[in-house]
Amino acid sequence: MYIPIFLTFIIGLALSSTAHPGEHVERDESNIFQKRAYHSHVVRGYGACANSPALALVTARAGLRRRNIVEKQRQELAARRGQQVLSPNLDSNPKHISDLPGPLRKSHRKTDPNIGPNTPEDELFGDNGICVLNPEGMVGPFYVTGELIRSDITEDEPGVPMTIDAQFIDVETCNPVEGIWWDIWSCNSTGVYSGVSSWENDDMDDTSILDATFLRGIQQTDAEGVARFQTIFPGHYQHRATHLHVIAHVGNVTRFPNDTIAGGTVAHIGQLFWDQDLIYEVERTYPYSSNTVPITPNSRDRLFLDEVEGTTSDPVFNYVKLGDDIRDGIFAWISVAVNLSASYDPSHDWRLTEHSGVSDLGGDSPV
C-alpha cells in the first residue's frame, strides 16, 4: 500500500530569549536564512522516503499502534464511568481557515463525522507530515540536565491528561531509529517549570522548586523508533505560545542505575506546539483558567512563526480527544525525522543531582 509522506519541518530556534516576564525575542535574519537552507538540503536528501515501501509499512504500523492505544484509553475511561466504549467518530472536526501560515490554517484533530470503527488506521492515525529538527535549536532558559528516565512525568500535577507519542525516522535511511533518548519538559498548568528557581519562572524565593521534577523526563525509542510519555497539557506564560521542549540524545549514551543518562551527543533540539482551538478549549478548564497572564496565540509567537513562515514547517501535534469533555484526556502524536550525524551541545543553567537541584548560573556548562 502506498502512503504519501508530505514532508514538513520543525526547526529549533537559535534566537535570544528569556521566556517569562521580561522576555526579549530578536529576529535573527541570518539564522532564519541558514535554517531554510538546511530545510532545502534535507528535502533533497529525504525525498526518496516519500515512495519508500519500508516507510509505508512503518507508517501503517504506527497508525495501527496509535489506534490501539486510543481504543484502550477510551475503554479505561468508559470503565471508570460505567459507560459504553467511546468511538472515534464521537468527536467532530471543525476547520478554522485564515490567511495565516499553513500550520495555522488547518486543524490537526484527526477525527471527523465520517470516521468510524472501520476507517483505515493510516487515515485516522497517520501524520500530516514528518518533522525535521534542526541540529541547533533553542533550548530555552529552563533546560535541566540529569532528569529521570520514566514514561509518566505527571507526578501530582493537575491538568488535562495527555499521552504523547513520537516516532523518530532516520532522515538518511527512512528507517525508524531505535535507541534515541527523547528528553522533554514543559511548564505546568499555570505556567511554572520544575527544577528552576528564577524570577523568570515564578518566585525566586521559592528554592524548593529546585528539587521538583514534574513534567520532565526521558524515554528511549524502541525498535519502531517510538517513545511515549504520559503527561498533562502544558499551561502558558507571558510572551510565549503553549509549547513542549524536546531534545534527542544519540550516540554513546550511558544509562546509570539511578535512571539518569550522560554522554553521547545532542543531535536535535526543538519545540512542538498544539492547535490554537485546542489550547483555548483546555485553557477554559481549571486550573488553567486561574492563570491571569494573557494567552499568546501561535499566530503571535515569534518562535513559532519563524519556524513556519516561508517554509513547509508544521511543528504541531496531531491529536484526538478521548471523550466528549476535554478533561477526559488527549492522545497526541507526531513523527520526527532526525539527522543522526548532527551534533550540538546545549548550554544549561540547572541540573538535577542525586541529592537536589543545583544552579550552574556561575558559568556555562556544556552537556
From TrEMBL:
InterPro entries: Intradiol_dOase_C (IPR000627), Intradiol_dOase_core (IPR015889)
PANTHER family, sorted: INTRADIOL RING-CLEAVAGE DIOXYGENASES DOMAIN-CONTAINING PROTEIN-RELATED, PTHR34315
Domain of life, source organism: Eukaryota
Keywords: Signal
Span of domain Intradiol ring-cleavage dioxygenases: 149-250
Gene Ontology molecular functions: ferric iron binding; oxidoreductase activity, acting on single donors with incorporation of molecular oxygen, incorporation of two atoms of oxygen
Protein name from the UniProt record: Intradiol ring-cleavage dioxygenases domain-containing protein
Signal peptide: 1-19
Span list, region Disordered: 79-123
Gene3D superfamilies, per the entry: Aromatic compound dioxygenase
